[in-house]
Amino acid sequence: MEPKFKIQWHLTNKCTNNCKFCYIKNKKIKELPKEEIFEIIDSLDNSTKKLNLKPIRIYFSGGDILLRKDIFKILEYCSKKNIDIGILGNPNLLTSRIVKKLSNLISRYQISIDGLEKTHDYFRGTGSFKMSIKALKKLKKEKILTIVQSTVSKININELPSLFKYLSDRKLADVYSFARLVPEGKGKSFKKELPTPKQYREFLLRMFYVYQEIIKEDKEIYLSEKDPLWALLFYELGLINPKKIQYCIGGCGIGKQLVIDVDGSVYECRRYPIKIGEMPKQKLEEIFSSNQHKYHIQINRIEGCKDCSLLYYCRGCRAIAYYTSNNYFCKDPQCWKTS
């Protein structure tokens, strides 16, 4: 069953990698102790029951969460509460023994691959591509659902359809996903590499057709269509017919997810920097009823979206809008309809 609510929780900023797009600004931020993490897990479990948000899924991330000495105690605590756990992680520490241990505690593991070998290693370090492929094979062997995530920029946009085919042909991933480059953290220096609206539409269209070919071949890989602008492309292709509704059924995840940072700070999105709460000091109910949260779900204020028939299906990416304009309600700079 798909979760009603998702939480991305960064347990540590410690990392042995030095990726060019890394959005982590402070690697020395103090981590919450295990006891406070357990307190937050209990609070989330109770609050999501009260708010009818069950089932939930927590994605633990970092940094590299396997660098936390107490990570398995945290995963075991979640398992006892029947919370679905995914990891957004690195391949570096995924030995066969570690993967075997994880197989009893998590449902999925995501690894970033940003292109074929030469391109990926440019972004994430020499040898990273081969290490990632080996890690995917270990995860598949233990029947952990594997997700490959790419960050899309002008540098790799023409190569990612080939990566998708590569993963499909070799049965290395159960899900292929991608997200656009957000010019924050180290990614600020790549702002000029943001695809134009035309380039991004052409990329989505190409990915769509590659996926249709893969489906015909009965390959077992799913293309995650999480980018809000998929809705616009599907509308243009006649695949969705917008109805006059008053609730969001797709698009930007703000309002349907939360992010907990290493120190317990709570955000609407990992790539949007405005803090809206603090755990374990606050419960989920208090954060949801706060003015900060209510401000961010005023979708009728979004430029270029408020009068669009796809408002409840899309809304563009608020993080990219913010980092390119310093205005949360600005239009998505890669939306070809409003460009």
Report what the structure shows.
The structure is a single chain. Helix 3 links the parallel strand 3 (84-89) and strand 4 (108-112). The chain is built from 11 helices and 10 strands. Helix content is 33%, strand content 15%. The chain has helices at 34-50, 71-80, 96-102, 117-124, 128-141, 160-169, 197-216, 230-236, 284-288, 291-296, 318-325, and strands spanning 5-10, 56-61, 84-89, 108-112, 145-152, 175-180, 222-223, 257-260, 265-267, 275-278. The protein has a 10-stranded mixed β-sheet with strand order 7-6-5-4-3-2-1-8-9-10. The chain is of the alpha/beta class and 339 residues long. The protein has one domain (5-300): TIM Barrel, CATH 3.20.20.70. The mean pLDDT is 95. Helix 1 packs parallel to helix 2 and helix 6 (160-169) runs parallel beside helix 7 (197-216).
Q: SS-based structural class?
A: alpha/beta
The second-level CATH architecture is: Alpha-Beta Barrel
CATH class: Alpha Beta
- Nearest-integer average pLDDT: 95
Beta-strand content = 5-15%
Radius of gyration: 19 Å
In whole angstroms, the N-to-C terminal distance is 38 Å
- Order the strands across the largest sheet as they lie in space: 7-6-5-4-3-2-1-8-9-10
For the biggest sheet, the summary is: 10 strands, mixed
